[in-house]
Amino acid sequence: MLISAVLQGSVLALDDSALDIDQVDNLIKFCPTKEEMEVLKNYNGDKGNLGKCEQFFLELMKVPRVESKLRVFSFKIQFQTQVSDLRTSLNIINSASEEVRNSIKLKRIMQTILSLGNALNHGTARGSAVGFRLDSLLKLTDTRARNNKMTLMHYLCKVLAEKLPELLGFPKDLVSLEASTKIQLKFLAEEMQAISKGLEKVVQELTASENDGEVSGNFCKLLKEFLSYAEGEVRSLALLYSSVGRNADALAQYFGEDPARCPFEQVVSTLLNFVKMFVLAHEENCRQLEFERKKAEKAVENEKLKTQKGQSEHLVQNPLKSSTIK
Questions:
Q1: Most buried in the list 189, 195, 260, 285, measured by CB within 10 Å?
Q2: pTM of the model
Q3: How far is C-alpha 257 from the geometric centre of its chain's CA atoms?
Q4: Is residue 167 part of a domain?
Q5: Helix (H, G, I), strand (E, B) or coil at 160
Q6: In terms of residue numbers, what domain contains 239?
Q7: Is the separation of the CB atoms in 252 and 258 below 8 Å?
Q8: Which residues contact 135 (CB under 8 A, 6 or more apart)?
Q9: Which residues, in sequence order, are CB contacts of 78 under 8 Å at separation 6+?
């Protein structure tokens, strides 16, 4: 059973160059159950008469708590990628929240929207509002002018283009917004919990392995080294995770919303939709302006041609009389 002996060595050495994550996870699936292990322990016959599966089990059983060690091995292999992916997602959440709250351009646009709303509702109970609900941003495309061609969003873009053109580029302030809409805080919490629990399992297996004797000596040494590094990473990650929770709530509160009723995911989704509608309306305004410019130029050109044509017809009807030569 040379292959099994090599396998034992790879597991006890936590050697991810010999076994990749798929192979380790498959080994976990194929680990013998407690009942199967008990039967094999009590088997006194010729082991050569056993099937390949049973012989394989016997070799695996030479590794104390083989399934637990394999699970620790699996966690170790995936640890760096899991931590890196989670840290990236947490940083995106923090960045998106800070970019929105720090954008002076977005703040001034919100103030302009409030002013436009108050102007439209002048003379009514809603004409002196001091704020508006975040989801009202998505209703700007519902309110249309009498000609049914221009929405309030188009009018907002038109006002900004004429009076505050420097605000039109506000989407550039929100570079992390779209990426943040693809992240669910619930899944981040689950991932953080999984990493923390995985680390607890490592500690438990290390404690148990220290009583195994020489067979687990190298395993314990390597696991201690990993644990020293992993605990520092998880502490750093936990601090980052705590800051994300505060920033996510702060984003909803920035817009006067209750984080419990308007969670982070809803806030960034609403903002992203608003940005997309704003950009589209501005582009449509620009196309309309270009159309009207060309139309005006065409009208001027037609007028010139009409004038030139009139002058030509006048010359044909009234030719110049040549002088009489004496």
A1: 195
A2: 0.82
A3: 22
A4: no
A5: helix
A6: 2-95+179-254
A7: yes
A8: 270
A9: 21
